[in-house]
Amino acid sequence: MPNREAIGPPPEIGFLFHMIVLKSVKSFLMFPIWMVQLGTGAKSFLDNPLLGSRRLNRLGLHRVRVQLAGSLCAWRRRRLARRVRPEWREAFDHDGFVAISDFVAPETFAALREAILDYHGPAREMRQGDAITRRLAIDPAMLEAIPELRRQLERADLKALFAYVAGFRITPLHYIQTIVTHDPGEGADPQEALHADAFHSSLKAWLFLNPVAHDEAPFTYVRGSHRLTPERLDWEYRRSLVGPQQMDRLSGRGSPRVNSAELAEMGLSEPEVFAIPGNTLVVADTLGFHARGTSVRAVERVEIWSYARRNPFLPWLGGDLLSVRGVAERRVGWLWALRDRFAGTIGQPWQSVGIRKAAGELGDS
Fold first, then answer.
1. CB 194 within 8 A of CB 324
2. By CB distance 3.0 to 4.6 Å, which of 91, 175, 249, 328 could disulfide with 135?
3. Residues 227-248: tens digit of each pLDDT
């Protein structure tokens, strides 16, 4: 009699069949979500196989998304332009960023800076390579303790500029951010590689509380790289044809890295490194290629950091309920709590380090 236990497929075949079935079921369940994401700011070629499909991108999927998002952003900006100071708007339109010296009145800035640096609040840290980023949310408690901070963030000229660059009337997320370089870690800081944040425009802003020298993790940007020229669109198309598994991890997740040869092919100049005096506000479109410059020594860079990104395919300017006063300043806390709650599913790179100040005491949690 044959051994009954030997009848049937080898266990390896059964395991493989099981995995194929599970993958097929997951794909079936996820397909509607992947389809919906085509009309959102979803950008990861790795996480959405439709976005990363070489066949679909050969037919123009990625290029069409880039062009449509760019056209809608340009249309929204035209409707927002009249409220922006002409000199700021012209500088931004030409370069992709605007740098404003003495943004806060000098007689006010010193006291504001001292109040921010002395403030203690709940802090989060994230390590990337040999760099540590610390953030304190600008939340109701901080705004109550530092009224001048609220006054500056609610300036009409600042809100108009933020709306123009973001392409929406939306309140950015605001933090006190500290960057520490050369902290012993694994690998290089990925923010030092020249990159775009996504396939569409978004806002980042830095109000530097201390001067930043050209060799101390400075702001770095390729002038004019925010424009969707035919050469930039061709580059976007070519990179979409590279399988996501063949890209570096961050490019595969939708934050493409770029090198000097590719900049030249797009008719762009080399990136510029900017020494920034304290009390300088820099507002940039991160569709443009930018980076955190390298530092020759360990430094601590402290700034008011603002960020705004919205679904790029929305045609309207406002309507963001999370931008309402009383809600907007609580969003960061809600976001951190949500990521803590579902850390096992969506991840939580920002680790709580307790009550801290913005400067000093970094990396010792």
1. no
2. 175
3. 999 999 999 999 999 988 899 9
